[in-house]
Amino acid sequence: MGNRQDTTRGIAFMILATLTYVVMDATAKQLVGHYPALQVVWVRFAGQFLFSLLIVNRQARMLFRTPDTGLHVVRGLLQIGTILLFFASLPHIGLAEATAIGDSGPVLITLGAALLLGERLGPRRVIGIMVALGGALIIIRPGAGTFTPWAVLPFLSAVCYAGYALLTRRLGRAESPWTAMLWGGLVGTTITGLALPFFWTPVATEDLWLFLIIGVSGTVAQIFLIVAFSIAEASAIASFVYLDIVFASIAGIVIYNEWPDRWTVLGAFTIAAAGLYVWHREHRAARLARGQPT
C-alpha cells in the first residue's frame, strides 16, 4: 500500500512540475517579446540560485563540495543552452509548437545513454528515437513554405537537455540533488551575468512581477521534479512529462490566442507516442529484471 501511495504522490508532483514549467515558459514568451532572451534566462538562474541558498541555508557550504566541479560546469552550460535556445524561439513560434519539438529530449536521452554511457540500444529503442525525430520534422517541416529556422531552436534545446540530463544522472548517483541545484544556479547566473551588460534592457515597473514569476516558477518546478523522482520510480512517472503539450496548448490558446495547426498536433502526438513507447519498454525491462510479471 505504501508503494502505491508513493507512486501516486510521485505522479502528482510530476504533474505539478510539468505545469509549473509551462507557467515559466508562458511567462518567458511574454517577456522575450520585450527583453533580450539572455536577460530573462539570467533572472531564471539567479532565482534558482538564491532560492536554493535560502532553502538549504547552513548546509550550502557542505553541498557545494564536489569532486566533479568540471562536470557541474559543463552541466550548467548545457542547462543554459537548454533554456536560452527554447526562450529565444518563443517570440517567433507558438508555445505549443516549441514545447512539442522540445519534447524530443527524453527520447534523445535514450540515444545519448547508449553512445556516452554504454547502455544497450536495442531495435525497439532505435524505432522510438526515429519516430520521435520524425515527429519533430513533421512540426518543423523543413522545405515547406511554412518552415521557419526558429523552429530548429527548440530541437537544439532538446539536444542540450539530453546532455544535461545524462550528466545529471551520472552526478546524481553519488551526490545530493541540491548540489546540482546550487551548482547549476551558480554556473547559469555567472555565465549569463558576464554577458548581461551587453544585452541589458531597463525593466519596466509593471514587468517586475513577470520576472519574479520566472525566478520562482523555475525553482519550484525543479523542486517538484526532485521530490517526484525521490519518492517514486522513474519508470512510473516519466511519461507524465508529455502533459506539458496539453498545458502549453491551453496556455497558448488562452493567453496568446495561438491555436496549434494540424501538423503541430500530429507531430506532438507522434513524439509523445514514441516517448511512451520507449517508457513502456524501459518499464517492462525493469520489471523483468526484478522478476516481476509484466
If you had to describe this structure to a student in words, what would you say it looks like?
The protein is an all-alpha fold and 294 residues long. It has helices at residues 2-31, 37-56, 60-64, 69-89, 95-102, 105-117, 123-140, 152-172, 177-195, 208-231, 234-237, 243-256, 262-289.
Task: Supply the key terms.
mainly alpha; 77% helix; globular
Reconstruct the topology from this structure.
Elements: H1 2-31, H2 37-56, H3 60-64, H4 69-89, H5 95-102, H6 105-117, H7 123-140, H8 152-172, H9 177-195, H10 208-231, H11 234-237, H12 243-256, H13 262-289
Helix pairs in contact: 1-10, 1-12, 2-4, 2-9, 2-10, 4-8, 4-9, 5-7, 5-8, 5-12, 5-13, 6-7, 6-8, 7-13
Please tell me how large the radius of gyration is: 19 Å
- The class by helix and strand makeup works out as mainly alpha
The overall strand count is 0
The separation of the N and C termini measures 19 Å
Mean pLDDT: 84
Order of SSEs: HHHHHHHHHHHHH
Residue windows where pLDDT falls under 50 for at least 5 positions: none
- Give the amount of beta strand, in percent: under 5%
Total helical segments: 13
| CA-based shape | globular
In short:
The protein is mainly alpha-helical and 294 residues long. It has helices at residues 2-31, 37-56, 60-64, 69-89, 95-102, 105-117, 123-140, 152-172, 177-195, 208-231, 234-237, 243-256, 262-289.
